[in-house]
């Protein structure tokens, strides 16, 4: 049995190019399409669908396929069935079920954005359909493909830490990121989209399950929305930042920050003309868009902090904290031979990404990664690895990985149920 690398080399040598269609050409769809277009020996972009025609045209511009086909929506693409091997489903959370099921039924394998769906029943139905039709489904849990988490996984699997006993992980969403996505943005109202622990932290649930290598059996959780609500609004703050807010100059959530270079990066995810519009046009757009609202006067319900306690098979305990009020992820792993600490805080304070010590206090490893890229390099890693999963892996191996992803989603749904009911949820 040739190794994955050898199989990939053989496929590349035989000019096996994966033909890719994109459904949903927003921020994520365009990102993956751009990364795929940088790997022409692996991928050809052959079709794209989005109701916003400019977004389809952006993907067309990335494609070197003269027969590239654009469609006004997923239904039109799936009805026409362009000749493609893989469909990238990059629509919003709510649409994943319909588009993933439709694409599998039309004969395509999938790169599917997370969350798989915002209902556990639909997640299970998608898994069942993939098994029934023997479709390959790869979920965009990009962090699994980052150099950082691949190294952590390797250190665990090589036994450097001994037997795992306990893990703590944290995700600091970042106050501005939180306000952009979970107060003003797409995932602000949990009842209309996904609960926070699924929308943002299904990545973390997946990572914990993957790193620990065991199934999670029990979850308890507390969390709430403390800060981004009307009773914290500065005195006299109006509904929208441009309406003469008395604290406009001092407020870090002032929508005017979208005019700054760093703000434009965020704006570009929700406003196609972020990079070309004048400041005046952007300000005018903000006057009516959700992103121009006072961050204390939105209809948001997403929790701004949540803590989980989880029990895994083998008696391994795990805690996880999501907070709006820190930036970046971190992980601490305690094993019988050693302990590992890594992530954003370790990097900022210790100058390296990962430190491993034994219990005599000796440093076993200090690892630093020079280039972090999008999602710690995970976006690039995912798109590169997709090829092997579609061309070299067996369908059964891809489905086994998808089963792990489904378990990570189950953990997230269990955590939300535990938070809402104040009970321990067993799975
Ligand atoms: N993997 C990650 O790290 C990561 C990061 C951010 C977002 N996401 C997920 O990616 C998905 C997309 O997020 P985004 O930020 O790119 O959203 P987005 O709103 O920028 O893009 C969604 C696109 O789908 C299009 N669309 C809507 N209905 C359609 C239809 N019927 N047919 C075809 N296209 C249609 C919209 O016009 C839009 O362009 C979400 O599920 C989100 O949760 C994943």
UniProtKB/TrEMBL annotation:
- What SUPFAM superfamilies does the annotation carry? Glyceraldehyde-3-phosphate dehydrogenase-like, C-terminal domain, NAD(P)-binding Rossmann-fold domains
MF terms per GO, please?
nucleotide binding
Q: Which residues form the Gfo/Idh/MocA-like oxidoreductase C-terminal domain?
A: 153-348
Query: Could you tell me which Gene3D superfamilies the record lists for this protein?
Result: Dihydrodipicolinate Reductase, domain 2, NAD(P)-binding Rossmann-like Domain
List residues of the Gfo/Idh/MocA-like oxidoreductase N-terminal domain.
18-139
User: Which domain of life, per UniProt?
Assistant: Bacteria
Protein known as: Oxidoreductase YteT
Q: Which organism is it from?
A: Pontiella sulfatireligans
Q: What is the lineage of its organism?
A: Bacteria, Pseudomonadati, Kiritimatiellota, Kiritimatiellia, Kiritimatiellales
